Amino acid sequence: MVHQYISNGYHIVLDVNSGCVHVVDETAYRVIPFVEEALAQGLDGAQEIAAYAAKKAAEGGGSVDPASLQETVEEILELKEAGMLYTEDIYEKYIGEFKNRQTVVKALCLHIAHDCNLACKYCFAEEGEYHGRRALMSYEVGKKALDFLVHNSGNRVNLEVDFFGGEPLMNWQVVKDLVAYGRSLEEPYHKKFRFTLTTNGVLLDDEVLAFANREMANIVLSVDGRKKIHDLMRPRRGGQGSYDEVVPKYKKVAESRNQMNYYVRGTFTRNNLDFAEDVKHLADEGFEQISVEPVVAEDSEDYALRWEDVPAILEEYDKLALEYIRRKKEGKGFNFFHFMIDLEGGPCVAKRLSGCGSGTEYLAVTPWGDFYPCHQFVGQEEFLMGNVDEGIVRTDIRDAFKTCNVYAKEKCKDCFAKFYCSGGCAANAYHFSGNINGSYDLGCELQRKRVECAIMIKAALADEEKEKAL
Amino acid sequence: MKHIKTLSTRDLKESMKKGGCGECQTSCQSACKTSCTVGNQSCEKAR
After folding, report:
1. A61, A95, A325, A469: most buried by Cβ count inside 10 Å?
2. CA angle centred on A82, ends A44 and A343, rounded to 5°
3. Shortest CA distance from A109: residue in chain B
4. How many pairs of residues across A and B have Cβ atoms under 8 Å apart?
């Protein structure tokens, strides 16, 4: 499977099954599909294939220089021989084996507080309550959750625990106590905890920051971008905005962590389809690790993204990609989470098939100790899997998530982005199609664009490196 | 090559043979929480 597109003047060819990315000239871009057709018809040899490609190009109303064409076809065939183009999908036949794999739990999202001091309009947790009651996780419940993780993680060394909410700083003492408890388990069980914290910043102070800098591998700081955008969607319960209160604190976090291992993370909605301006704003404020993501909301919400907004959003991603490259080249770069793609050291195929691991490797734990496949399913009783006392009771739910992968999803089969999003978010698929093996089509459209931009950025920055080396 | 430049990438087919240790980060624990973004995760062994 081959995906070709033109972005920022680059002619890019992605060989989906090998993961190879080729930046080609116009002739190659034009004839790559013709060569594939010729090979499928059993034609052999560069000359014969070049003749076929010339004929097809002429039929399409264009012509190509014969000498250049022959040379291009030779290069294309060389890549094919090296397993870098027109590569077959060898993974699907292993999928049965993959479905039967033994899974272990390696990550928990601890809902340390089902309560919040903000009233963000787009909150999927309904201001922290998750379709339920306000509650704080007790130390005892948290302790049992960490014990469950240690005892169900097999020989995995790295274990991840995210303190999530609602707002986890509303239950800060329990967070600190659980970190201490987790550390006490590391040596006896030969485990390494990576704690992370997701906060709205309201209760962030020097004491929290000092502790987080010592213990938290990552901090996610919620902010939507420009003050007017942020304050519109992230008010306090009384209606006042929260931007002025949190942004100065976030700057302190970023600096004290040497601009690493944190994210300022925002959500864009129909209210700010010009979200590139929000990303630029955050970069101008000195943040170097930025994530701004599309809202996922019911169609009935006035801020929900609509299909008619998609062209503008795609264009905005293009604009953002150009700005991203420009700033990197000027030495004032920042990281944008959704444009980061690790082509060289990225995940193995097993990871790309297993996706986010929700319901198998990754579970969410409510304040009273119930397990759900992930934070997005919390409060939906049909996904209640078990609890910290009994463990996983509904193994059928776990098994359904275990078999959820790109080959189980009809719409993923022919999608070039399938090994980058791994089939997307199961919760979004469920909420929009009624099935975890369904899809969230609007989200897929945006995901494909982000993958295209991310690869183009790699091509542009590789060019820059080359120029510097000359 | 004159007409084609290939960016350096991990060979996915090769990773089929050696991958799957599971020590890598869970994608939703990094920043997203609303989308599945796996392609930008790093392999723990390749670090």
Report:
1. A325
2. 135
3. B29
4. 218
Residue of A nearest to B43 (CA): A347
Task: Spell out which residues of chain B touch residue A71, defining contact as CB-CB under 8 Å.
Answer: 2-3
Distance CA A425, CA A438 (A): 10
State which H helix or E strand residue A164 sits in. Answer: strand A158-165
In chain A, where are the structural domains located?
Answer: 2-88, 349-447
Q: What angle do CA A387, A388, A391 make, to 5 degrees?
A: 65
Residue closest to B3 by CA, chosen among A340, A101, A35, A244? A35
Condensed to tens digits (0 to 9), the pLDDT of residues A413-444 reads: 899 999 999 899 999 999 999 999 999 999 99
Instruction: Show pLDDT as tens, one digit a residue, over chain B (47 residues).
Output: 999 999 988 888 888 877 688 888 887 766 667 666 677 777 887 65
Which residues are CB-neighbours of A397 under 8 A, at least 6 positions away? A359, A373, A383, A385
A449-461: per-residue pLDDT in tens? 999 999 999 999 9
Q: Which of B9, B13, B26 is facing A362, going by the closest CB pair?
A: B26
Residues 294-353 of A with CB under 8 A from B: 294-296, 337-338, 340-352
Helices vs strands, H then E, count in chain A: 16, 15
Q: State how far the alpha carbon of A461 is from the alpha carbons of A321, A353, B18, in Å.
A: 11, 28, 29
Q: Is A349 close to B32, i.e. CB distance below 8 A? A: no
SS3 A267: strand
Using CA atoms, how far residue A76 sits from A58, A346, A456, A458, in Å, is: 20, 25, 20, 21
Residues of B in contact with A18 (CB under 8 A): 9, 11-13
Q: Determine which of A348, A349, A376 to mutate to test the interface with B (most B C-beta atoms within 10 Å).
A: A348
A226 SS3 class: coil
The position carrying tokens 């903000």 is A118
Nearest neighbour of B35 by CB, restricted to A17, A293, A362: A293
Tell me how far apart the alpha carbons of residues A224 and B3 are, in angstroms, rounded to a whole number.
Answer: 43
Set of chain B residues whose Cβ sits within 8 Å of the Cβ of A444: none
Nearest chain B residue (CA) to A73: B3
For chain A, give the number of residues: 470
Please say whether the beta carbons of A413 and A407 come within 8 A: yes
Q: Is the peptide bond before A166 cis (omega within 30 degrees of 0)?
A: yes
Range list of β-strands (E), A214-317: 216-222, 262-268, 289-294
Kindly list the residues from chain B whose CB atom is less than 8 angstroms away from the CB atom of residue A342. 39-43
β-bridge mates for residue A112, sequence order: none
DSSP-derived 3-state class of residue A268: strand
Structure tokens at A80: 């094919």
